[in-house]
Amino acid sequence: MKNTYFFHIGLQKVKFILTFVFFSTFLCSVCHAQGQNLRIESSFQPPSITISNNSVYKVIIYGSQENPQGALPQVDALIISNSPQTFRSASFINGVPSVRLEMSFQVKPKKMGKHTIPSWPLKIGSKTLQVPACTLEVLSPNQQDKIRQVAEEKQKADLKQACFIEFTNPRSFLFEGETVSGLISLYIWDRLPVSRIERAPQKDGDAFSLTELGQPQEKRNQTKYNKLYSVFSWPIGLTAAIAGKHQVVFNTAVRVRVKSRGNSPFGSPFFNDPFFGFGREESLNVTSEPQSIEVKSLPTSGRPDSFQGAIGAFSTRSIVDNDRVSLGDPVRLFFEIEGQGNFAAMPAPNFESNSNFKIGPPAFSFEGNELTKHQGKQRFEYILTPLTPGLLKIPAVSFSYFDPVKEKYFISNSQEHPLRVDPGETWIDTTNEDNQVEKETFSIPTTDLFQTENEPGEWVKKIQNKTLLDSPAFWATQCIPFLCVCGLIFYGRKRKRTGRDIFRQKQSALKKQMKEAIEYKDSTLFYRATRERLRLEIGTFYKHTNPSSLSSNELTTLLKRGLNEDSVISQIQEILHISDSYEFAETENERQSLDSLFRKINNLLKKIR
How far is it, in rounded angstroms, from Cα 609 to Cα 606? Predict the structure, then answer.
């Protein structure tokens, strides 16, 4: 037995020595061969393709594995990738060592015919060699190519129908400065697992301006293209800014849950998997079809001098708050414009002072659709101060606008308002008389005054004046703002306490749900509650506006912004991964005790900083 044992040990040593000598000899031979037989080959694989297929342009360097340097020439009829795949190898061919470096470029043809990549220089180390020219033959598409091309176009059309934007514009042309009411609608297929809309639709280009987009109007189970959609709509006010023919395009992005890169909409179509897979989120860009709108310049013929840019269909009226005042008292004149038009860009009518009235700049207010500001009523308030007494007339306000439907200018004048201005009363200064009476009162001699039994008390020169601080009405008045401040402080604390109570109620409910899952050994329910609890407590800790919408990656980003230890972050990431796996129907090989995991989660949440 001992002889056999030592025999095996000796055999293993001999094999190790032979292997070492073999590789040493091979490496020396390879290093020696790198300086010899340096040559380059180029080819297309396959060399002949149809126009709907792709080929590979290969450049093989023999005798060196150094990184080459050079610029690949461009061919107009071919699309050549800039990032090649490289492959290095070393071998023996008929007892001669050989090393080679292979570079593969993806090539897509643009048109049919024979297309040649000319010879081009390539520097390897200190030497410069020429890459041989190579020709690719592109043939017309066959029947299989046509079928595949039709299938790809259908898949692209189906992908566009999964999520798209529609813009509704009531007019095919606009005038420069005109405002119309439009509607932006985002259609999301019910079978597309969208977790959230990243942002509201945005407009491309500067030819038009939009009003601010508010909260969308949501409609469920809307049928289109024989599919059910959820539709999110934003009413907008669209204003033409530049004359000419322009295109309007809107784009947005939505978060889509995918299981793997192969199931995402960025590789192959997702329609083979009706539920699109779950587990990871990707951003899907959505763009509307370009819509062409012609913007015309306003006509110059018949334009009144008072025109200041109001475009639409309007009616006007004016009101005064008083028809009789005294000289110097102000009068308010209200000028109202009602109808449809560009209220957001409408200036105040020109109403200047004259010899009878001093007129200040107007204040304005709008009543109507605040989102589009296309339909409603605009009110301008002028303050008039009469300068002379008598029976005066408040002059009419002139307002001119352009009607885009009738394509004409109109002038609307308000009516004149009569106003009686009284001269008022003459003011008499009584300060000197009061001072004289006061002096005479204090000049009464006190030697002539005496006290009788029927009038007890001390004689004084004057009645003592009470200060403002001695007045109960003053303190009662001061208590009102003090009580208001106290009430606001109490209300703010109550709201803050209410928010904390809601958080504690949600936290308690999730803890209870986790304990019930442990009791019934329901792993799926336990990990679902675990994920919601991590979202709630981490999002609330970092003051996120909507913790329930946070994904696993966003939770990890919040933890990394804090002063948390790497071990804490990695453990929470692991728990989130397990929770996502159980939630979205994946299997987890490693089973953990739910009770111990519950205690572990409690300890981890206490360590968050």
Answer: 8
Block residue for tokens 């928010």: 499
Give the three-state DSSP class for 551.
coil
Residue with tokens 């439907």: 405
Name residue 40's beta-bridge partners: 61
DSSP-derived 3-state class of residue 224:
strand
Per-residue pLDDT tens over the stretch 578-605: 887 776 544 444 456 888 888 888 888 8
Residues 62/153, Cβ–Cβ less than 8 Å: no
d(CA 195, CA 99): 52
* pLDDT of 160: 78
Kindly calculate the radius of gyration of the chain based on its CA atoms and give it in whole angstroms: 43
Reading the block at residue 527, the tokens are: 């990990």
Decide: residue 533, CB within 10 A, 0-12 exposed, 13-18 middle, 19+ buried.
buried
Q: Side-chain half-sphere of 71: how many Cα atoms within 13 Å?
A: 3
d(CA 441, CA 131): 124
CA dihedral 169, 170, 173, 179 (to 10 degrees): -80
User: Over 80: is that where the pLDDT of 284 sits?
Assistant: yes
Which domains does the chain carry? 39-139 (2.60.40), 151-296 (2.60.40), 312-422 (2.60.40), 503-606 (no CATH)
Residue with tokens 């885009």: 404
For 509-526, what is the HEC assignment?
HHHHHHHHHHHHCCHHHH
The model's pLDDT over 343-369, given as tens digits with 9 standing for 90+, comes to 887 888 888 888 888 988 888 888 887
Cα–Cα distances (Å) from 140 to 54, 114, 153, 473, in that order, read 13, 12, 18, 100
Q: 3-class SS at 439?
A: helix
Residue pair 30/97 in contact by the 8 Å Cβ criterion: yes
Residues 6 or more apart whose Cβ sits within 8 Å of residue 74: 80
Computed over every residue of the chain, the mean pLDDT equals 79
Q: In whole angstroms, what is the distance from residue 229 CA to residue 219 CA?
A: 8
| Residue corresponding to tokens 């007892």 | 95
Residues 212, 369: Cα–Cα separation, whole Å: 12
Q: CA 344 to CA 573: how far, in whole Å?
A: 50
Helix%, strand%, coil% for the chain, nearest 5: 30, 35, 35
Backbone angles phi, psi at 420, to 5 degrees: -95, 125
Task: Look at phi and psi of residue 53 and say left if phi exceeds 0, alpha if psi is from -120 to 50, else beta.
Answer: beta
- Residue 197 burial (10 A CB sphere; 0-12, 13-18, 19+): middle
